[in-house]
Design a protein that fits this description.
The complex is a heterodimer of chains A (109) and B (111). Chain A is mainly β and 109 residues long. Chain A is built from no helices and eleven strands. Chain A has a single domain, classed as Immunoglobulins (Immunoglobulin-like), CATH 2.60.40.10. Chain A starts with a strand and ends with a strand. Classes of the chains: A mainly beta (109), B mainly beta (111). Chains A and B meet through strand 4, strand 5, strand 9 and strand 10 of A and strand 4, strand 5 and strand 10 of B.
Chain lengths: 109, 111
Amino acid sequence: EDKVVQSPLSLVVHEGDTVTLNCSYEVTNFRSLLWYKQEKKAPTFLFMLTSSGIEKKSGRLSSILDKKELFSILNITATQTGDSAIYLCAVRNNNDMRFGAGTRLTVKP
Amino acid sequence: DAGITQSPRYKITETGRQVTLMCHQTWSHSYMFWYRQDLGHGLRLIYYSAAADITDKGEVPDGYVVSRSKTENFPLTLESATRSQTSVYFCATQQGTDTQYFGPGTRLTVL
């Protein structure tokens, strides 16, 4: 059965810390892996990864995919309180998309 | 440019009643999706549609019905609501890439 597992489920850090969020998957016919940020509303798109070893970067956020080991990481450097959110990982295979349970990140001042 | 909208945003209903959640997009994206989000389960796909008049089941379709007579609309119907269907429902669209864009969500409570 296809599955997407995120870890940790919850994380509390202080402003300025660097965090790494993990997403591992077992999915048939993998097409892409996506990261979303969800605050108190709908998820918003962060990154889409299709190739191994190519880092995607946006400001303080970056992500990379390892298709051999079947995982991805999302890094956030110099965290700010506005980074507090649930971070969702999702994997696409053909027409379906499977989400992980999410990592709840809390950044304290 | 509204993009993707959902209505109602909040709904309280009773067990056994029929409820329809609306999803409308202004982009003409081919794909549309319905998800439910519950604590401990994350986002789960209920149904999706690749184009008008083409729909398919997702991970948790039981108790739900969808239709897509027009590209821009993708209503989700709970034919006889149950308490286990209390959830937040998200509609999403997709066109040409693997990025999905989500609507604002509908919070449904079944008493």
